[in-house]
Structure formats: structure tokens, C-alpha cells
Amino acid sequence: MKRSPSMPPVSDWVIRSTQPGAIERIEAWFGSHGYDPHRHDTYSIGRTLAGVQSFHYKGALRHGMPGNTLVLHPDELHDGMAGTETGFRYRMAYIDPALIQAALGGQPLPFVPGGLSSDPRLFHASETFVQGVDHPLERLEEQDAVYDLAMALRAVAGKPRGRKRLDYRSAERAKAFILEHLHLGITLEMLERASGREQWSLSRDFRALYGTSPYRFVTLRRLDNVRRLLLDGFTLVDAALAAGFHDQSHMTRHFTRSYGVPPLRWLERLRPGQQRAGSYKPADTELQ
């Protein structure tokens, strides 16, 4: 059904789950354009609730509709837009590949071609994560659901393309070092010393196991901190510096590439009640 010209426009909105946990979950509605091309370092697992959710992925325009499961692989470029004039509504969960690795135990990350699946195994395995964001997930429920999702991803993706054995333990040591030293200017030489693995072999293993490069992993963890700081009322400048970026413009460029919108636009889309009182100060000039 087309929207009548006399009907008032509905503003785009995003609701984020505020429950503490390992999985970020959102529900959103967009009337037309949603996001510019960007990349996450997580699996993006979702469900279109209404309308048509269109996106470019792996060189083609895809169309998510109710009944499909969206499965976007870590670090794959994609965008988002309404496929019809009526807009679209969806839920999405962003799942750290390290959680999937905890179940896979060092296998290459499963890749589901096309970004969409009609396989009932993925549909059922993702059900826990696409409940309403106001539905709290118990810790054990979340952990069980991650395991079920990892097994479904592996089954649906099929046998991974052949490659040499991966050094999972060394990659885990490198990841732990990164998380403990985000305030430093981390280098591959530092990761080589921390992991005990030759730096270029480590870099290849890291990509296969976690879906992104060590540098992108560092950048995304710093952006996680930026988002938390912005919601706590920090200005763009203060959040950028506190999270380890050179300056505001450096942070904004990475933020837009990673989330498809600049940081203030990201804040504005959060529905009332999702931002804390005085959650951001718009005195900063947004850099597009």
C-alpha cells in the first residue's frame, strides 16, 4: 500500500537494546534511505518484519522480506534502503565472530553466499536474537543461542574452501593483547611478540578466524568506546580523543565507514528513551 501524500511522514528510528550482554540488538524503521555503504566486523543476523529491505552486497542488489534470514559476513561492504515506498522494519543482531569461534574452535568462519537465506535451520537458530529488543536474554540463553547459530551457520555454509591449518591459540593471544592495550599504537610487531606467531601468518589467521584485519579490529573496538561515550554525554571531540583517535575528523571518517552514518546522525535516530538525559551536546560541527 502506497503512502498517501496527505499522510504525515514518519521519521526514521532505531531502538537499541540497553540490556548488558555480549550481543548488540536493534529494531529499526526506515522510510527510504537507511545507510550508506559500510562494513561491520561482526556477523549481522536479522529479520525483515515488514516491507522490503534492499541492500547491495557482493556485487548485487538483494531484497530481504519477511521469512528470510539476513546473514551478512564480517567485513563485507553493504548498504541499506527501502525496496518500496512503504518503507521497511527489521531487527538485527550484531554477533562478534569471537563468540562463533568459541563454538567452532578454530575453523574458518562460515560464509553464507548472497547475504540472505531461506534455510529453516538458520531461521530457527536466529530466533532468540531477533525477539523484541525489550525482551531480556538470560546469560545462559544467549550462550546456548550463540552455539546453535554457529552450528547452523556451519551447516548452511557447507565445507569451507581449503586452506592451511589455522593457529587459533596465537590469534586468541593477539586478540586479548589488543583488548588490553587499545590505548597504545598497536603494531604487528607487538602482536607477534604477544602471540608467538610470525606477524604475516598471524595476520592471515586473524582474518580467517575473526573476519577482519587486526587494524580494523582495533578501530572497531575504539568505535565501540566512542558510542558508549557519546551516549554518556561526551562531545565528539572528547569521545574521539578518549577512545584513542587522533582527532574528531579521524574518528568521524571511521565511524561513517563502519556504521553508514556520521555519529550525530546515529544519535538522532535513536528513539526517545534510548538516549540518556543530555546524552549528547550538538555544539560540535559534524564532519560529513
Walk me through what this model shows.
By secondary structure, the protein is of the alpha+beta class. Among the domains are: 13-157, Jelly Rolls; 168-211. The protein is built from 10 helices and 10 strands. The chain has helices at 97-104, 120-125, 139-157, 168-180, 188-195, 199-210, 214-231, 236-243, 248-259, 263-269, and strands at 13-16, 24-30, 33-38, 43-51, 53-57, 60-64, 69-72, 78-82, 88-95, 116-117. A 6-stranded antiparallel sheet has the order 1-2-9-4-7-10. A hairpin with a 2-residue loop joins strand 5 and strand 6. Helix 8 (236-243) crosses helix 9. Residues 1-9 and 275-288 have low confidence and may be disordered.
Low-confidence stretches: 1-9, 275-288
Average pLDDT level: 86
* Assigned CATH superfamily of the domain at 13-157: Jelly Rolls
Sheet with the most strands: spatial strand order: 1-2-9-4-7-10
Number of strands: 10
Which structural class is indicated by helix and strand composition? alpha+beta
Instruction: Give the SSE order as H and E letters.
Output: EEEEEEEEEHEHHHHHHHHH
CATH architecture of the domain at 13-157: Sandwich
Count of DSSP H/I helices = 10
| Helix content bin | 25-40%
CATH class of the domain at 13-157: Mainly Beta
What is Rg?
Answer: 19 Å
Strand-residue proportion: 15-25%
Largest sheet features: 6 strands, antiparallel
CATH topology type of the domain at 13-157: Jelly Rolls
Describe the global form.
globular
